[in-house]
Design a protein that fits this description.
The protein is of the alpha+beta class and about 280 residues long. The protein starts with a strand and ends with a strand.
């Protein structure tokens, strides 16, 4: 059975990859939304955890292979695997192989932010050492996100794991950017804040068509309502304001919105019925 879905975006091609799944505490994932409400949207397991996918996006341009948020990776301890109920199937390696590629073919990696579930796959264990997974790629991170991630505080140290990105800097594979910038022609980033202070979303634009990878701004359709923030969002009020703005822009400019963690919906379009925002799925799982 085919794992990878793909579609054309102007001259670009988008490949919707997978890098396993993990389960987060339902209360943490839905924040202040009561379980009596969110349990109508998802079914928790016996430990009150809800299932999330890791959904990296590969953008093939005419000259580059751009990987956005490489996903979980597989460097976790027995304790971490148990806490997060991590599964490595299907892996990003398996997905790349399915489309005739390997990690060595990736020449650009862009991360929305540096939480473990987004960049754990940037490094791997090889001969008992942690080394870059994408050794031919330059990794683009926000400079201030890098500072926060390399100096985590009491709250953030549970989501920032140095082994996921410090080895990249040591190997000379990191380029730190500041603010809204174009990485290459057609691929750009825009700082949104909200989930982390310097979280960014990633745009792919070609021939008048636009796809946007939302990262932690909206990880799944179950959070499409503006107030449905996560306990993991460091700035929940900011994320609500930013969602309102981005939803309206997405509708006006007809963005294909790509979702990081949704187990069923990979990409689609926002609609507004005059009262509520809705998500019209274009690419499912």
């Amino acid at each position: 059975m085919k794992i990878v879905k793909n579609l054309k975006l102007g001259d670009f091609e988008l490949f919707f990859l997978r890098d396993g799944e993990f389960w987060l505490d339902g209360g943490g994932y839905f924040g202040i939304v009561p379980k009596v409400i969110w349990s109508n949207l998802v079914t928790p397991d016996e430990l009150n955890r809800v299932k999330l996918n890791s959904n990296p996006l590969l953008v093939k341009t005419n000259e580059h292979n751009v990987l956005i948020d490489p996903g979980l990776g597989n460097k976790y301890s027995v304790k971490q695997k148990k806490i997060f109920k991590i599964s490595y199937e299907p892996s990003i390696e398996k997905c790349l192989n399915e489309i005739g590629m390997t990690a060595d073919d990736i020449d650009i990696v862009v991360a929305t932010h540096l939480h473990f579930d987004h960049v754990g796959g940037c490094t791997k264990i090889e001969n008992e050492k942690i080394v870059p997974t994408y050794k031919n790629a330059i990794h683009y991170f926000q400079k201030n996100e890098w500072e926060d991630a390399t100096h985590p505080n009491q709250r953030t140290k549970g989501t920032y794991y140095l082994e996921n990105y410090v080895p990249l800097m040591e190997a000379g594979l990191v380029k730190l950017v500041e603010g809204n910038v174009e990485i290459i022609s057609g691929i750009s980033v825009e700082v949104t804040g909200g989930h982390t202070k310097y979280h960014q979303i990633v745009f792919a634009k070609s021939k008048g068509e636009t796809a946007v990878y939302f990262g932690g701004i909206l990880s799944a359709v179950t959070h499409i309502k503006i107030p449905y923030t996560m306990g993991f969002d460091l700035y929940p009020v900011d994320i609500m304001k930013k969602r309102q703005e981005l939803y309206q822009r997405a509708i006006k400019e007809n963005w294909l919105v790509c979702l990081e963690h949704d187990p069923e919906n990979r990409a689609g379009y926002f609609k507004f019925d005059g009262k509520n925002y809705q998500f019209e799925t274009q690419v499912g799982s």
